[in-house]
Batch of 2 targets.
Target 1
Amino acid sequence: MITRGQRILFWTLLVCSVLMAVTLLRMRERAMDRLLASAETMPLNPPSGRPVQSVTMMIANDMDGSVQPATLNVALPLDANARAHVILQHLIVNYARPGSKHPIATNKGVNEIFFMDLPLEPNQVVPGTIAVVDLSASFVEAHPSGIEPETLTLLSFIGTLHANFPQISQVRFLVDGQQRDTLAGHADLTRVYLASDAPGVKHL
Amino acid sequence: MRWIEDRSSQPRGSRACLAIAILLAPPLAGAQSPPSSPPPPPAPPAVVRTAPHFAVVIDAAHGGTDGGARLSDHLLEKDLALNMSVRLRSMLAAHGISVVTTRESDSTLSAVSRAEVANHVGASACITLHATTSGSGVHLFTASLTQIPMTRFLPWETAQGAYAEQSLRLSSEVDSAMTHAEIPVTLGRTALQPLDSFTCPAVVVELSPLHISGKETALSDPAYQDRIVAAMAAALEQWQRDWRQQP
């Protein structure tokens, strides 16, 4: 026979357990939000001990459809792939700033950049290097949809890479390591872009 | 690699002449004819000159499950493109221009299907309609393909390359009409499907809000839409006149 006191004790303990579980879940969510918020607003610090170099950024402007060069001093790592990654990341941070003329509401854009010497196959005659830019899915999701903004973003990336790494003759884009049809519904990501498409050679 | 037979590389009017020749051909034996009436004398051979057929293809981008860009809380790119397509078709038809549209309703259509429709018509101009919230005025795009020689069979992925120069001329025509209508224009080249597979002079017209001296006109503004449609119709009428004067 269960006494009334035991029943009260049981229900009290059960209610306390549920309340503690809800409280813990809520605290965990808040901690996760704080962590994400701090990560998103974390400034892009230059790597310590690295030489500061002058790099050329090809900055897009939605209002007149142009891509114009701008010079910036950036501390760069020695490895070429890492250097290209830092340069494009600075470009994306520039687009995420308030008042940007080519606004993209995220400052996390590029997962990795790989350089591969051409020709990839013996029967190909294309000289130079192909750069494979692996964009993050969050960047693609946050990118404005439209032919002009998407084309300008690609031209800006290609132009910036070509300006700082003249050996790059082709650029290919992936999203989280996978081929994707378009950047945000328009610009074709299935093709390989020639560096001669770059704004330094041909303006939009 | 997929290839496409370029019908427009045939001499102009040849298909029309063929159709007329079939119509004028004597009926086959056993075909239905009044048995009592004497057979008509054979018509003397005549050279029938018909005006080349000028047709415009209007491709309203996106549709169905593909909404395109969200232009406002209540307006999607696919709906605006379809609306503009219908209005442009009506205006061109009122001026006696044959128009074929890739879609007339909110239906999903693949890039390949759009190109197949446009290429089947053998159009004299192809206009693809898009919209975005970025930039100002109208963005005109042509394919970022280099000119390739016109051949009977063209590679599907780069067929538009054979029309690169004509597309630039068509783009210039639309640019002039937009400028005349005081709508700012941005010219560009892009890699876009199905544009690269069109076997016709082709231009992508991307509409965006109007920003003039700090004042913004939204894409949903009917007066702004009317100006754009009127300018495109004027450009295509001028293109038709230029097209007829070509040898």
Target 2
Amino acid sequence: MDNLLQLIVSGLATGGIYALAAIGFALLWQTSQTVNFAQGEFVMIPAFFILAAMKYLSLPFWAAALLALVISLLVLGVAFKRAVVDPLLHSGFVPLVIATLGLSLFMKEGVKIFYSAEPQPFPAFDAAAKVSVFGAAVSMQSVVVLGVAVATVLALQLFVARTRTGRCMQATAQNPMVARLLGVQVDRMIQLTFLINAGLVTIASILVTPIYYASYNNGETLGMAAFIAAIVGGFNQIRGAIFGGFLLGIIDNLSAAYISAAYRSVLPLLLLVLVILFRPQGILGRVEERVL
Amino acid sequence: MAKKRMLLPLLTAALALSAPAWAQQTVKIVDLCELSGSGAVDGTNWHDGVNMAVNEINAAGGILGRKIDIIHYETQTDPGVARTQMQKAVDADPYVIMGPVMSFEVRVTMGLAQHAKIPEFSGGESSDLTAKENPYFFRTSLSQQFSLPMIAQYMHDDLHAKTIMIFWENDDTGRSTRDVLTKEAAALGMKVIADRPGDNNQVDFAADVVRAKTLHPDVLYVHLQEQATARFLQEIHRQGVTIPLVGDTTLMAQTVIQMAGPAADGVRGWVGLSPVLPDPLAQAFVAKFTKTYGRTPDHNAMKSYMAVYAIKYATEKVGKFDRDALINYMHGMTITPQEEPGVFIKTSWDDNGNLDRASYIVTVDSGKQKVIAVLPPHGTTKQ
Amino acid sequence: MNARLTRNNLVLLAIVAALLIAPLGMRSYSLNVVSTWAVMSVAAIGLNVTLGFAGQVSMAQGAFVGIGAYTVGILTAMEWPFLPCLAVAILLCLALGWIVGYPALRVRSHYLVFVTLAFTTLAYLVFRNEEWLTGGTNGIPDIPRPEMFGISFESDLAYCYFCLLNLAWVSAAVMWLVNSPWGLAFLALRENPVKAQALGVDTRRYTLVAFALGSALGGIAGTLYAPLVAYIDDNAFTLNLSLNLMLMVMVGGSGRLIGPYLGALVVVVLPELLRIAGDYYLMGYGALIVLLMIFCPSGLAGLPETLRARRGATP
């Protein structure tokens, strides 16, 4: 029983990581129908901005983190949208997918060449601290990740439902044509989502990299986990991303412990297929309301 | 004004045209290495070790008066690409070929070099590489066939283990580690009660550690890749598991120690080469490398560096650039640092291309590797 | 119009002639590149049927190449001659394509990506873990090249022609398919599935057929790939291969007959050429892909139209 609890608690902790990566992904999809195959690399790279700032500019961690945030907002938020997404939005789903694939390769190789091929340690808030949850051991870092993931989702939900800008974003997501007619500045709203995503991935990066270690190929697993978590939970609901992430983390652990270690990565995917077959909007999702 | 503008291009052209006259004074060596993909860390170290050796040798006049013209072909840790690059290498007709490092790439490519009768010095450690007769193939580090029995012996004699649980990386080396170690352990009366494959992309090792806690073996043997190892160690530490941890080169890697922090303390393992060997010549190499490349070398850099110098030494002994004479000389050869300082640890090769060298049992103490035992060469080659 | 057609035919003839003669002068490395291009073209043609003509996004093409390759690897080790292996591979991929394609009925294009993703992961894990069948991480070594009708295709030159021959018959078959009533049905599926259904086209059946055919072509490519590299293991058939194939189709021009050949040319040959850039070549490759998609989303085959549109757009 002890062990089962340990597995569930660890699964929730890992699930928090997946959720953070998935939230921005779901957001981009919701408001601009962008499937960002480079999302994993987006979470990987701010950590390297920080490491580079600390190494080459000798900045302390908090200053490097702020600088990384600014760079992310500009590059992953504004530049990405203007240079890559805008020209491709009307060309259909697949060209954008391919372009983001090319982008992920570019980012990955860039980090490998300009920083290092070797995995790097990354400063955590309190590396060794562990916490005991009903007898199961979990690192403090994981608890923080969990907390931030939940807080982020709540904050986003409030923003979207309660503020004027948030409601404009929702309108853009549901029906951009009508939204424009009603005076919503659609393009601004979309740009805002990209900026929010850039901010989210930076936070995710800072929280997640101490556990993952900074490595140029982190994006591969994180990206995959983000897609699965977002879709299983509900692509068009932000809180679906958290739920999907948790579910993914727990199922991965339980299947690895009780079913098969060698096939552990296929079980979440099988879950994905089942969800798509029987509930394509995701477990927590609403049936797609967007009218094109 | 126009005349001046023409001068530089003309000079360059003249120099380029005269280059062939110099080209005959070089000896070509092709190196296949992994600079991207899962083998990137090993391949990059191997590549840098080769370069450092080549630069030093060339600065000192080259081999038999000829400078080494080193060409690197990148394999992307992809066997298909590796095979293509090997074909390109063979077409280039080099004196010898270095690399690749990863055993699954060596397997695909060694036949091509053999067919072309070009000596190959590779970094692969899988035992099956020397199972088929190939007089042109030479290892640059100890085969698993020799290292794993030593590890089993250590677990039996020093740790008095009766039961073992193996965590292995789900690739060819990990699998053969599990298979060979299980066999060697059984020969000494130890039982491998369970084994679990792991993946370098795996973040969560809770399930694996839980299984270890449930089964409670005497020793946990870990052979995973660097990132996975670090995460595994952290999970062990987090769940407060105190079973002794034993491994080999991957467990003791500098990157693992750096990433895992205090969770790495107390692990023990076998290494063929390590940057912390107390030997002064080895330390001189490490200092030079760190100064040139800005980071500590790993065992792959040491392997390749010594291999290049071994080639130089043997070639000079033979007196000419003759591939068949080279391989004949190297079979059964022993080089000591006195004879060739570039080979800073005494090394021998047998008639199968297997390498023999001393090896070490190392532990991690306060974040630093420390040698706790030196194991002599296994001695099946004439000394 | 007639002049252009004749000119196109002449260009095609010239290319075919070049393909027939060029290998004679090549050494093993170049022969290998040409053979790899031919094999990848077959797989890309298959994906083009699925994606370009029928509009279904598949991330599983790499897995089908793997299945074809392992079929040959396993059966030739049991002394089967090549042609029966090819037949088994085709049947197996058709069947699996049908099964995997079944969920395609229930979901729309974005979600199919993930169903095929699951299949690719499953296939990769089977290749990796089931040692008794696939050799696991040790793979299958020494895969022989075929000997048929008294000719041995052992040498690099002969095998190169073998690959080109297979590419030829596959190309002919697909061209016939596209111009047949089936081809028109696929086109209807891609352009407007709702309308097609209203007009009585059984979208369900045609979707499955497109998927199965595309997968079978992937399998054929696999049967050619295994003897080409003589050794296969799980590392070659990961998601990366599926992504590369998708890249080939998009870069070449999705839905265009000539697309796969151009795309395979770019994806196979370009990285080799870019090696001059040294360590930066993969990075440059990624950047080029992004730029290509931005400036030419209908791929290289659509380049003439894209240029014409741009010229037309500027007043």
